[in-house]
Amino acid sequence: MGDDARKIAGDGEARPPPKLPIPGRRNILITSALPYVNNVPHLGNIIGCVLSADVFARYCRLRGYNAIYICGTDEYGTATETKALEENSTPKQICDKYHEIHKAIYKWFDISFDQFGRTSSPSRRRSLYCDNCKKFLADRLVEGTCPTPGCNYESARGDQCEKCGKLLNPTELKDPKCKVCKATPRIRDTDHLFLELPLLKDKLEEYINRMSVAGGWSQNAIQATNAWLKEGLKPRCITRDLKWGVPVPHEKYKDKVFYVWFDAPIGYVSITSCYTQEWEKWWKDPENVELFQFMGKDNVPFHTVMFPSSLLGTGENWTLMKTISVTEYLNYETGKFSKSKGIGVFGTDAKETKIPAEVWRYYLLTNRPEVSDTLFTWVDLQAKLNSELLSNLGNFVNRVLSFIAKPQGQGYNSIIPDVHNPESHPKTKAFAEKVGTYVDQYVDAMEKVKLKQGLKTAMSISSEGNFYLQDNQFWKLFKEDPASCAIVMRTSAGIVYLLATLLEPFMPSFSVEVLKQLNLYGGDQLSFSDENGDILQAKNPWNIIPSGHKIGTPQPLFKELKDEEVEFFREKFAGSQADRLLKAEAESKKIAEQVKNVAISDGKGKKEKQSKAASGAKSKSEPEISISRLDIRVGLITKVQKHPDADSLYVEEIDVGESSPRTVVSGLVKYIPIDEMQNRKVCVLCNLKPATMRGIKSHAMVLAASNENKVELVDPPASARVGERVTFPGFSGNLMTGALQGRPLTTSAGVCRVASIAGGVIR
């Protein structure tokens, strides 16, 4: 899709020369709010800035605009110092760690940054000083009760109240407490630098009044900005008493750093300078460059008031923001997403669900909180996947391509048919007119950064496509009116390509797969530009793919999300991350104890020897398992990976001769390297009751032998047939392998063995 050449800064991949503004072209500079590097981003963070900006950047490239997308991690400030204290680490170590986490998450979500980098007049100010910690407290190291009338939120931070959104100074809080030691700080005077906003009032208001109209600012952005102006502009402190940050280059303030919300927006400029040494051509050319910025509503005043004021105050000709796109909050099930409290689905969680990235992108974008808060629920995700992606979009694409791929006499043998006078086919002409209207609506919505509307419009074309197929009953036309059927199928194939194009900004991996199935994927950037006549061609869909073109192999594009999976995810991601960890640890211990205490008899009532860890008093009513009842089979591990929530567990997919492999969770990480597990034959106990181990249900148990020093797998012969029953001919004595008192576990291909343990115990 053309994005292979783009990169996240620092990932070591090659990339083309940086783009610069081109005279006479539409040059668009796109930024998204720099995510804090002190935590893993959750879905609300992702839709609020980086994903929304990515969709618009992809759309701009699709249209042939000369666009670049700049972002990076915001690494300075109190939030980083606080996280370093929590993790007993240094701020730099925190930044290095979480920058890599952010980078990996955004790569999985198919975010196509052009550059993803890192941000690494004097007055008196009264600040809070903690005598216990012996230092001035930065804003986020203070918590107290919000002073705003009617709010009274008791956990307001020193810079902003999370509940009402009011920007604060630490000294305004009621009953302030130091976050580090919980002591009550006192007020002391300290020297700081201030941005004199009142002196910039006229220039700032002229800019806001002009650009909010020209740039079509969203209503929530206008409201937040006007609220600041209504209160009256006041001098704003731009320095802090911190060690971690950009040092103030002045001898008098050498022990201070710049306030993160003064410094962070400048990060857009500095990251661009990492992208190209000629960064000024983007940032100091307002006549030829349009600046679009994406963020959540709590970041608005810093981008509409403070950052423009900083640039206006220099007196230089800066590229000021033209359009701002602001989201409200995405809430989770019954409450709010929260990084600090670990509530919700985080970027790493989304990846672990195995639900494809394009499904997450689609759901977040259909649920984008553009005007008011929206709600994430697992049931809604299921409904949108199953009804909109699977039954509507996936169904349309698959019906069209599968029919074309049918052999001669049943279909077109994968060849796009030739057609004559398609405009004369009434239903096709009417369908094309509807598609043309939708295309115009799509472009209008996307140009105005109404991303949710753009996506909805594109999906409407798919719905119309399904109706077009059904209305024409193409399966009957194929025999009764071959010429009309050829028109319908060639037109529909063109719509498949059109959908891949229009949906590329939203679901890029979907578009790649569709193009492969059309046999049209060459790695080039899709085009939907006026210069190439793409929009005009879209209104004549029978002309999009030429006759005689051979398509690829059709495959299902989406997989159904079942009720039991939804319930599993709801339970798995309920509560906070800390709650989930405690629950998982408790489950793991419970299952481990159950496995240790299983009694195995030889069929004559004689119990097997147990490991020391499993010995001890047991209930008289506890059932024994007879050897004759054990269903042990030869299995082949076809896939193995670390358990996402447990460092000591593997999750394996094991073929035991059934129609589908069994999922098995094994506590073997400490004993068997993962590369020795892959594609290995093992002995599998298949008739244990399934047990959930840290959120994953295990449907069997891999047999291993152990002694006091080590654990080794029980290996069937290399030629043993997968699924074959393991037997115990003439068994008597302890259940051991190798020289197990002369009575080993046996297959038709020979005896099962362990590498080195003698006299061990099977478990």
Q: Give the CATH topology of the largest domain.
A: Rossmann fold
Q: What coarse outline follows from CA principal-axis ratios?
A: flat
Helix content: 25-40%
Q: Which architecture of the largest domain per CATH?
A: 3-Layer(aba) Sandwich
* Biggest β-sheet description: 5 strands, parallel
Provide the number of structural domains.
Answer: 5
Work out the oligomeric state of the chains in this entry. single chain
Count of extended strands: 32
CATH superfamily of the largest domain: HUPs
Structure keywords:
763 residues, Rossmann fold, Rubrerythrin, domain 2, 5 domains, 5-stranded parallel β-sheet, 17% strand, flat, disordered N terminus, protein biosynthesis, tRNA-binding, cytoplasm, Met-tRNA_synth
Describe it for me?
- 36% of the residues lie in helices and 17% in strands.
- It is an alpha+beta fold and 763 residues long.
- It folds into 5 domains: 27-124 and 200-225 and 261-327, 3-Layer(aba) Sandwich (Rossmann fold); 139-178, Methionyl-tRNA synthetase, Zn-domain (Rubrerythrin, domain 2); 336-387 and 561-572, no CATH class; 396-550, Isoleucyl-tRNA Synthetase, Domain 1; 627-751, Beta Barrel (OB fold (Dihydrolipoamide Acetyltransferase, E2P)), CATH 2.40.50.
- Helix 12 crosses helix 14 (451-472), helix 13 (426-447) runs antiparallel to helix 14 and helix 14 runs antiparallel to helix 16 (482-502).
- Mean pLDDT is 84; it is low at 1-12, 121-125, 595-626 and 731-742.
In summary, what is this structure?
This protein is 36% helix and 17% strand. By secondary structure, the protein is of the alpha+beta class.
